[in-house]
Amino acid sequence: MAKRKKYPRLPNGFGSIRYLGKGRRNPYAVHLPTRLDASTGDITDRPAALCYVDDYMVGIAVLTAWHAGNYKPGYELSIKQEVAQNTDAAAISNRLLSDYRKISGIDMAKPTFSQVYDRFFANKFPEGHKYSDATVRSTTAAYKNCKELHPLIFCSLKHSDLQSVVDRCPLKHASLELIINLFHQMYQYALMNDLCEKDYSRGVKIKKEDDDEKGIPFTMEELAKIYAAREDETAEMLVIMCLSGFRINEYRNIYLNTDEWYFQGGSKTDAGKSRIVPVHSFIQPLVMQRMERYGNLLPITAGTFRKNMNTLLKQIGITERHTPHDCRHTFSYLCEKYEVAENDRKRMLGHAFSDITNRFYGHRDVEELRKQIEKINCDFLVTIKPK
Q1: Element (H, E) at 19
Q2: 44 phi and psi, to 5 degrees?
Q3: Domain range for residue 345?
Q4: Model-level pTM greater than 0.70?
Q5: Least confident of 166-180, 200-214, 278-292
Q6: d(CA 215, CA 62)
Q7: First vs last C-alpha separation in the chain
């Protein structure tokens, strides 16, 4: 039995050519570069075949043309036709050599989006890294959600390529935020390693409404039930959240000033970062208890807190479905109910102002904000008797 001809090994990151067996008109499947998991080395995403060809060397020509940016559907047929028509062999060779010269050194000089991602991933998550499993999963998910960029040369990408990925992605706002965050981190890594000359991720925006901001505030009766159960550490934290208005993850790294009694922290938007919110006098004892007990306000993950919250609400008879983000809506509701100045409510929630006057010239110190937040009368938490 005659052995199948042995062909040259392709370089790393070049792509692959798979032999599918006898009995096929085009037995070779040509695949674009496959991404490997940076931590395990396992194949995580094999692209579908770019095309099928009748000869291994034609497959090499296709991959060479693709890396050079000259491949178009049907390219492999044009080579076959030229050979069949006895076209000058020198002309075909020169065309292939021209493509090859464009990509020589491609692994080092012009890596694809996937290749840059693999290097970035290995750099950010080395063995023994400090990041949580959730962070690793979020990064991997963001990469998978911009699949159309995987085979493209990273340094050739433009703002429109990145924006197109975000615009066309059908997922929720939070998933789009992860994609943009990945872009920012990859470009930061690429710039430090001379893999690109400009950060095109800086102008990428999410154009759809933030569906993460939807929610249902707790009623006064529900808040009274939660406060009555404040011996439970989850209930204790819920009361603090409903009277300060930060997002759940923002409490993990929030700064507390106990001399002037204010929180400083925030994330997600320019208006929300490092914002100051006075600590309402009603929750100061609860805040101090948690700080003395744990050293911070939220010593567990947001996911664990959600589970504990669901269990607590069932135990105290709150049947309406609530999420931690509803505490932020509750704070906004209380501000409105007790006539906290609208501009100050926006400042404490970290919402951006649409008018130039407030955006650039609106300045409030801690004591001015304190006068506003103290308008919220918390007597109802004690006077309303939970049923």
Answers
A1: strand 16-19
A2: -115, -15
A3: 215-383
A4: no
A5: 200-214
A6: 52
A7: 86
Residue 81 lies in a domain: yes
The pLDDT value given to residue 350:
81
CATH number of the domain encompassing residue 152: 1.10.150
**Measured CA distances, 179 to 165, 175, 183, 248, 298 (Å):** 9, 6, 6, 21, 26
pLDDT at 262: 94
Question: Using one digit for the tens of pLDDT, what is the confidence trace for 325-340?
Answer: 999 999 999 999 999 9
**262 phi, psi to nearest 5 deg:** -150, 155
DSSP one-letter string for 54-118? SSHHHHHHHHHHHHHT---TTHHHHHHHHHHTT--HHHHHHHHHHHHHHHTTHHHHS-BHHHHHH
Task: With residue 173 as reference, give the H or E element that holds it.
Answer: helix 173-192
As a whole number of angstroms, the distance between CA 365 and CA 278 comes to 10
C-beta of residue 33 within 8 angstroms of C-beta of residue 20: no
Per-residue pLDDT at 70 exceeds 80: no
Segment 208-231, tens digit of pLDDT: 766 555 678 999 999 999 999 999
Same domain, 278 and 374: yes
Number of domains composing the chain: 3
Q: Clarify whether residues 206 and 224 are in a common domain.
A: no
Q: Name the token pair of 345.
A: 């409510």
Query: 68 exposed, middle or buried (CB, 10 Å; 0-12, 13-18, 19+)?
Result: middle
Q: What is the C-alpha to C-alpha distance for residues 195 and 118, in angstroms, rounded to an integer?
A: 13
- Tokens representing 164 are 């197109």
Q: Which amino acid is at 115?
A: Q
Same domain, 316 and 372: yes
Beta carbons within 8 Å of 53's beta carbon, 6+ residues apart: 26, 28, 30, 59, 62, 76
For residue 31, the cross-strand partners are: 16, 49
The last residue of one of the domains, among 81, 109, 137, is 109
